[in-house]
Design a protein that fits this description.
There is one protein chain. The chain is mainly alpha-helical. The chain has a single domain (25-110), classed as Four Helix Bundle (Hemerythrin (Met), subunit A) (Up-down Bundle). It contains 5 helices and no strands. It has helices at 2-19, 25-36, 39-64, 71-88, 91-110. Helix 2 runs antiparallel to helix 3 (39-64). The longest helix is centred in the middle third of the chain and has 26 residues, at 39-64.
Length: 111
């Protein structure tokens, strides 16, 4: 009984993330792997995404503190996060990265 309630709550929460544009259809495809392959594979995919993105964001944060900021390097790091977010279905993060890349490119051109 409690397990079915929790599954329902999880399904509603994931649906709300889709409705808000935080996740996209790629995440749905990854979820289907859960039923086809071992669920651990999906968990590993998501864990790897978080570890990779955390590492890149840490590096990005380091570059932001430099007095002579290299916007092309910043754009490259943002592009890495964008690619990883696209592969996992993290739409909101992907869109934020696209905005950051555009701002970096524009600032680079203005220099």
């Amino acid at each position: 009984m409690a397990l079915s309630i929790l599954k329902g709550l999880l399904q509603e929460y994931v649906q709300s993330l889709f409705d808000e544009g935080i996740l996209n259809d790629q995440f749905s495809q990854i979820q289907t792997l859960k039923s086809v392959e071992e669920p651990e594979h999906v968990v590993q995919l998501i864990d790897t995404y978080f570890i990779d993105v955390e590492t890149i964001l840490s590096e990005l944060t380091t570059y932001i503190d430099y007095p002579d900021l290299d916007f092309s390097k910043l754009a490259t790091l943002a592009h890495k996060v964008e690619e990883r977010s696209l592969s996992i279905g993290a739409e909101h993060v992907r869109l934020a990265c696209a905005d950051l890349i555009q701002a970096c490119n524009q600032t680079n051109e203005e220099k």
